[in-house]
Task: structure prediction
Amino acid sequence: MHNSSDPLDSPFLKEPSPHDWEARYLVLFNNVLHGIVFLDGDGVITSANPAAERILGLSLEQLQGRTAIDPRWQAIHEDGSPFPGETHPSSVALRTGQPVENAVMGIFNVDRATTRWIHVSAVPLFRLGEPKPHQVMASFVDITERKQAQDASREAEWKFRALFEKGPIGVAYHQVLYDEADHPCDYFFLDANEKYMELTGVDPRGRTVTQAFPGIEKDPFDWIGTFARVARTGESIRFEQYLHLNNRWYDCVAYQYKPDHFVAAFLDITDRKQIEEGLNQSEQKFRTLFENLAEGVALHELVWDDQGAVVNFRILAVNPAYQRHTGLDAASAPGRLGTEIYGTEVPPYLEEFSKVALGGEPYAFDTYFPPLEKHFRISVISPRHGQFATVFEDITERKHREEELKQKNAEMERFTYMISHDLKSPLVTVRTFLGYLEQDLTQGKQERVTTDMGFIRDATEKMGRLLEDLLEVSRVGRVVNPPVRVSLADLIQGALAAVAGALASQKVAVHVNAPHLVLVGDRPRLEEIWQNLLENAAKYMGEQPQPTIQLGAEMQGEDTIFFVKDNGMGIDPRFHAKIFGLFEKLDAGSEGTGLGLALVKRIVEFHEGQIWVESEGQGQGTCFRFTLPLALKARAAEL
Amino acid sequence: MTGEPFLILLVEDDLAHAEIVRRNLEEFRVANRIVHVTDGQQALDYLFHQGAYGDAEAYPAPGMVLLDLRLPKVDGLEVLKIVKSDPDLSRIPIVVLTTSSAESDMARAYEYQANSYLVKPVDLPHFAAQMEAFGFYWLAWNKYPY
Result:
């Protein structure tokens, strides 16, 4: 530790002299990475090199005079327990005279304010002939970083060990086996974790896969080939695969550990797969239902304005039946607004729909929708908040049929009412006058017998006519004779022949103007039209001195209009609407049943035609006009 | 009843039924004061002095009307409705006499202010009994403001 003139630049250029040794020792002492401290026989530090100053965080001045047992060292063992000064390597070396090697000690570094870990060795130094060391040299190296790294890796290993042993993943380490042709044919289990065995129910260690899982080589999926490729190429893979042998789904990861060795880790995902499969199936079922439902289905979402008010809705999806029910293009519907697609100012049924979409009860209603001119039955449900689905069908046809049925029912009701009345009337007459007849006979009122019997006869005749006419009316549309071709002229001739007697007695002149027309239909029914109208005309001639009837057909545009016109007593316009009703009579004295014109109307309507009456009124004559499109159309189709 | 002749306007399209009514009312000495018309239009013409019945002297207002419902031209219910909505004619009692026992007919008849509703019985003893009761009530006991 004295000055030296020796140039330190080249210490190895020549044989060292004793002088050189000291110089070299100094270089070493000052530059070595090990901390070196000398303590005297009392354990007091006498000198320390720069590395020691650095490692301990104390300057030479601060170190000199400190003892090994100074509590300020705050020395600790690796497990965190105190490292008493008496047991410090330097103290031990001093006391025992034996060197102490490689003790690990934590020392509080004042400079860094942290504990530094050091590896300490202490060597006692003796004076010649003395049994006790007169000083000790402690050397130490800072192992803090190395120790931290070691600790970390130990911790990590411990963690991964736990994961390997206890985690949810089955892991096994394998070596691929090849046949003579160098094709992979099997693999050998070098190791497997507990989970692996738990998941598979097999302890494969020390066996090959074909031994542990017999038949795996026949699985549709090439397990051996797949893993062998990984072990050979080093390309990691991940895949989900069903293993028929175990009846389970696995999520597998495999990577090469070293050539022809691989690690495979897998997770049993059978439950998840089954749920997915179930979802897929229910999705599939729903799809099928949606696509094939006879009802139209449309899914919508509500549209809000800036103020948070619902102002519209947007179509998200529609099924094929949507088009059939609405007549709107199903393909272009999604994405469009309610107002846009239905061409309305206000989105149709917005209030009803939004109520359901915002958490209301699902409900159904029937409605007439003017923009499409259709009746709909609409069910509304909400699959999620802010959305609604409508299931609907076009019930226009049904509504019309219901309406028709309602009318038919009303007519039927009226019919039974009228029958009961019109049949009861003659019954009242017959039974009451039978009572009078009894009185006449017991009281000898012979002159009244004839009168009373006359009332009875008239009443029964009336009943007879009524029953006959009822039968006729009921035949229309029910009893149908095979359709035949018949000319208008023939029909009129047939009708005229049937009423010839009535016409002759009234001396009626008949003028027929029948263009050449052929009708197809139930001839007796068609003839009945003209027959009834002719009878009526003859019956209501009134005081006309020159009774005349004109009949035939004329064209009005495309339509053929038939007519029967007389110059008789006419019909007050007030009663025009009434005369075609069932049992309606205008003349109380007439013999009619009030069914004649009702019957004509039914026959005309059966041929999709219309009938109406034209008359200026009393004494002005009457003209009945009617059409028979079906009879003429049938002819056209036949030609 | 006053010295004025008490007229019954019988509106009945069935001649046989009109004869039954006439015979049964004979004993109340009104038979010769029955005016018989056979359809609803004639009934209205008579009451409103129009058409063939324009002469109010020759066709004086009736004391009551016996009205059938099923009538040619103008239905009995229609006649009832028109007469009862006329301020001068509305106080004339109208007794409906019909074969119809349909509830809808009865309901509407009373709705249109019919004073009574009688269903024609289907044999002589009942018809006679009914007409007798009708005669005593409406022609003997009932008081009229004219």
